[in-house]
Specification:
The protein has about 425 residues and is mainly alpha-helical. About 45% of the residues lie in helices and about 5% in strands. It is built from 17 helices and six strands. The chain has a three-stranded antiparallel β-sheet with strand order 1-3-2, with no helix packed on it. Strands 4-5-6 form a three-stranded antiparallel β-sheet. A hairpin with a 2-residue loop joins strand 5 and strand 6. Helix 7 packs across helix 8, helix 11 packs across helix 16 and helix 13 runs parallel beside helix 16. The radius of gyration is 25 Å and the shape is globular. The N and C termini lie far apart (about 50 Å). Bound molecules: acetyl coenzyme *A (ACO).
Length: about 425
């Protein structure tokens, strides 16, 4: 708790973990404790001009300098381009681990032993079937419904009739293409099973290409969690009302849907298609620099050096293109990247390719329609959302999320009858 002090702001105080604040409206000085590099916003409330004053608040639209929780799940150093899940560097996990092992790590905090991994894999594999009613639910959407909207609705609906489910899988994509839904095949590994549910036709047994299966596993690992991003913040905020986790995750899916967040991979592909040829790049870049539009897949609130996920994805594209053939949009993407990284506009603003710049090219090479790209982000991010949700519900410092506002509207107006307005 902070204390009011009779100001001694001399240098003798250096070395103590406190912040001395003088309120020049009153001349009062306060000493606020600094813990973990932060001061408590609530400590400012005691700073008042008179008894009736509500007290000083902090104003931080979009949380650009506010920690909203303590978390031991994911560490990011944006300036150094470091990303770690539970302390393990993303590069090592992408090279050596699998998505299911990473999701265990995120949820439980430790890498599993072999028996733990076997049990976890078995549990998930045995729960990949969804309740038959989900099919009817998905069938109710229009044939051209955006899959993210369908995922959002379907996950929200799971809270009503399928409380034990862990996955809803890809019913939306086949619905869009008018194909029959494919049931999971428990002989396949998680990413292979996923590919089977996307692409199995009449063959008795779907055999995924191991290179594609591995690339998908890596993409899922890279998207599993990312600290307090927009959708995780949404999951935490919605979950702070103590609603069920399905509803909280549906809130996260809604946040992820937007083009500034998980919808960026879809927006990147549409942008690359629109640019079309290398010759169109200069005019496109001119428009971006004039603020007419954004170079989608570039820039990040936290990473100001490079996004380590983008580096890993870029090399994964090569493995995928070996199987599928090169995506002609790759050349345009690489050219855009080259130009942007040498351009003063992007350099001075520290704008680098983020995870979404290249992921869409892989999804497209896998034959997925662009609307499915954000869904491919949402599915692996579920393990991060749930890890953060689990952390939140046992955190005694957390309460229902409820920010304050600076009110800018009118006050105390008298109601005017309609004829006199
Ligand atoms: N293209 C062109 N200019 C950009 C871009 C971009 N992609 N991103 C940021 N800028 C510019 C802004 O116009 C601003 O310029 P100014 O100072 O002259 O006004 C400056 O860089 C700072 O940008 P902000 O919008 O303040 O950065 P913020 O941290 O709020 O936004 C965001 C981060 C949303 C990711 C932004 O960079 C963006 O819109 N990128 C494109 C969308 C995208 O790829 N999103 C995916 C992010 S990763 C993820 O969610 C998985």
């Amino acid at each position: 708790m902070s204390t009011e002090t009779q100001a001694d702001s001399s240098a003798a105080r250096s070395g103590s973990d406190t912040l001395t604040v003088t309120d020049n409206r009153t001349g009062q000085t306060f000493e606020l404790p600094i813990t973990d590099g932060t001061v408590r916003a609530m400590d400012f409330r005691q700073m008042k001009v008179d008894e009736d004053d509500f007290g000083l608040m902090t104003y931080d639209p979009a949380f650009t300098n506010t920690a909203s929780c303590r978390s031991a799940v994911t560490f990011i150093d944006g300036d150094a381009g470091i990303l770690e899940y539970r302390g393990y560097p993303i590069e090592q996990l992408a090279e050596k681990s699998t998505y299911l092992e990473v999701s265990y790590l995120l949820v439980h905090g430790e890498l599993p032993t072999q028996p733990q991994l076997d049990e976890w894999t078995n549990d998930i594999t045995m729960h990949t079937f969804v309740h038959e009613n989900v099919k009817e639910f998905v069938g109710g959407f229009r044939h051209d419904a955006h899959p993210m909207g369908m995922l959002l609705g379907a996950v929200g609906a799971l809270s009503t009739f399928y409380p034990e489910a862990t996955e809803i899988k890809d019913t939306e994509n086949r619905h869009t293409r008018g194909q029959p839904l494919v049931y999971p095949d428990n002989d396949l590994r998680y990413p292979g099973n996923f590919l089977g549910m996307l692409y199995k036709m009449t063959e008795l047994k779907y055999q995924p290409d191991p290179r594609l299966e591995r690339a998908l596993d890596i993409l899922f690992i890279l998207h599993a969690d990312h600290e307090q991003n927009c959708s995780t913040n949404a999951v935490r905020a919605v979950g702070s009302s103590e609603v069920d986790p399905y509803s909280a995750v549906a809130g996260g899916i809604a946040a992820l849907y937007g083009p500034l967040h998980g919808g960026a991979n879809e927006a990147v592909l549409r942008m690359l298609r629109r640019v079309g040829t290398k010759e169109n790049i200069p005019a496109f870049m001119k428009g971006v620099k004039q603020g007419e539009e954004r170079l989608m897949g570039f820039g990040h609130r936290v990473y100001k050096n490079h996004d380590p996920r983008a580096t890993i994805i870029k090399s994964a594209t090569e493995d995928v293109f070996e199987v599928t053939g090169k995506n002609p949009l790759l050349e345009i993407a690489m050219e855009l990247e080259k130009i942007a990284l040498a351009d003063e506009y992007f350099v001075s603003r520290k704008l680098y390719p983020n995870v979404d710049f290249y992921s869409g090219l892989i999804y497209e090479a896998l034959g997925l329609p662009v609307e499915m790209f954000p869904v491919m982000f949402a599915i692996p991010r579920t393990s991060g959302w749930i890890s953060q949700w689990l952390e939140m519900v046992v955190d005694s410092e957390q309460k229902i999320a409820r920010p304050r506002q600076i009110y800018t509207g009118a006050r105390g107006r008298d109601y005017a009858e309609i004829g006199s307005r």
